[in-house]
Amino acid sequence: MTPNTVEKTPVTLLGLGAMGTALARAWLAAGHPLTVWNRTPARAAALAAEGATVADSAAAAVAANNLVVLCLLDDASVGEALAGTDLTGRDLVNLTTGTPAQARARAAWADERGARYLDGGIMAVPPMVGVPQAGGYVFYSGSRELFERHRQTLGVPVGTTYVGQDAGYAALHDVALLSAMYGMFAGAAHAFALIRKEDIDPTSLAQLLADWLVAMAPAVHRTAEQLRSGDYTEGVVSRLAMQVAGTPTFLSTAEQQGVSPELLSPYFALMRRRLAEGGGDEDLSGVVDLLVR
Ligand code: FVH
User: Fold this and answer.
1) 11-165 — its CATH code?
2) % helix / strand / coil in the chain, to the nearest 5?
3) In whole angstroms, what is the distance from residue 117 CA to residue 133 CA?
4) pLDDT (tens digit, 9 = 90+) per residue, 53-87?
5) Does 97 contact ligand 1 (Cβ within 6 A)?
6) Which of 13, 62, 69, 72 to mutate to test the pocket of ligand 1 (most atoms within 8 A of CB)?
7) Phi and psi at residue 94, to the nearest 5°
8) With CB atoms 3.0 to 4.6 Å apart as the test, which of 81, 114, 129, 171 could cross-link to 22 if both were Cys?
9) Class of domain 173-291
10) Sequence spans of domains, the chain
11) Would you put residue 234 in left (φ > 0), alpha (ψ -120 to 50) or beta?
């Protein structure tokens, strides 16, 4: 048998929203037999024309194949979609965004129903699916054996990164990265607001911002090293005392530009607290400990 004639694992996919549809197209394009179900049946029509088998109920879709992938709105929709379906012997892979606690509870729930369970956190947006050079991937956690068994199939739409046996770890990594992303978006929103009323083209600032954020991003490695060693003064590049001294400049500039400081102020308050605790010779790693309750 040549690699092109190797039988591809059949996949059942529940959920044909923007992400589910992109996943479905990637599996179809790679030649995987695909059974799909969506609460609103009309969303399956285009995929049927592209070769997917459309099941008329979630139970029928689950019955069709051993590997069942879920990509629904939230954890509640997973519970609703799977209510009353027979999951015995099924390999459930849940790519629905949720909390670590929801993932752990869902793993126990699947186990009680005789199914194996892998949780996933998608680090991609739909246009990145099926485009390897776009760099998208999914965090997986839960049964390592299940991950290895389906690794190749799961790696068809986007890459795979396994982060541990604890079913909650994929969600935790997902939320950690997305939280950092929102921090970045918040900073960019403040930057655009500062120039909003000026004769500065936002597209020129955008390029400068993108380059600057890329240049600054590796600083997370220094933070990680300091958190690991416990010595927050190790390899310090920009002392906290110096940075706090500069914060009035940021706040005054915001005021002069008619921009609310509400995105910056909470972070500056944490920096001042750490300075007051004696962290003047550190970088910003001490802020992490102020957040942990
Ligand atoms: N799209 C994105 O950019 C992000 C990228 C990162 C990962 N997220 C997560 O992926 C999950 C699905 O996201 P989506 O983009 O496909 O979302 P929608 O287009 O809104 O589709 C939602 C699907 O869920 C179905 N659904 C909702 N409620 C129920 C329910 N109670 N029972 C059964 N199915 C339900 C919905 O069905 P319908 O409205 O068409 O009938 C869609 O199939 C999500 O966790 C993101 O956080 C995407």
Assistant:
1) 3.40.50.720
2) 55, 10, 35
3) 29
4) 999 999 999 999 999 999 999 999 999 999 999 99
5) yes
6) 72
7) -105, 110
8) 129
9) mainly alpha
10) 11-165, 173-291
11) beta
Long-range contacts of 213-216 (CB under 8 A, 24+ apart): 213/184, 213/187, 213/188
- Residue partners of 191: CB distance under 8 A and separation at least 6: 205, 209
- pLDDT, tens only, 92-104: 999 999 999 999 9
| Total H helices, total E strands in the chain | 12, 8
CA of 80 to the centre of ligand 1 (A): 13
Nearest CA to 189 out of 248, 124, 261 is that of 261
Domains 11-165 and 173-291 share a fold: no
Taking CA atoms only, the protein residue closest to ligand 1 atom 32 is 77
Task: Tell me, in angstroms, the distance from the centre of ligand 1 to residue 268's CA.
Answer: 36
Residue 15 CB less than 6 A away from ligand 1: yes
User: Is 184 in contact with 245 (CB distance < 8 Å)?
Assistant: no
In three-state secondary structure terms, 14 is strand
Q: Give 5's pLDDT tier (boundaries 50, 70, 90).
A: low
This prediction has a pTM of: 0.94
Q: What is the mean pLDDT of residues 142-147?
A: 96
Q: Does residue 42's CB lie within 6 angstroms of at least one atom of ligand 1? A: no
Nearest partner of 233 among 244, 222, 242, judged by Cα: 222
Atom index in ligand 1 nearest the CA of residue 19 equals 16
- pLDDT, one tens digit per residue, over 105-136 is 999 999 999 999 999 999 999 999 999 999 99
